[in-house]
Specification:
mainly alpha, 4 helices, about 75% helix, elongated, membrane
Amino acid sequence: MDPHDSPGTDRPEPAAAAAFIREAEGAARRVAVEGSASASAWLTGLAAASAMYLFALGWYARSEEGPILALSIAYAVTLGVLSVVHLRRMRAASLGFSRRFGLAVGAWGGVFAVSLTLGLLVFPGVPVYFAIAAIATAVPPLWGSLRELVVVRA
């Protein structure tokens, strides 16, 4: 009897222990993939909502506060629903997820802020500018979404 064993405890056979380890690794992988899918869906939704918001803003002059306010409220509600539906499902994440997610959201925030600031102050009511800004703003979260799916599923 091994001095580290407590009376009444059974050690699993090596084959059974290996099976338990494989099962635990498989479960951890499934949880990470499911969490990754939720994060990817949220990033995709962020890209779509932001692009539509910026594109729609291009059709209004700065003085048209009513429609701009309505668009902004709809955008905020959309992001809130996306967050409640997708981010709360994330129970676990893959290795490096925080860095990838932070980079995608940080890049989106920077591009969105610059696009919105320039659009409202320099190019109000110029649909072409806002269309280009919409595409540019959608790129970082779409890249992050794709990257998350590629990294986790590989």
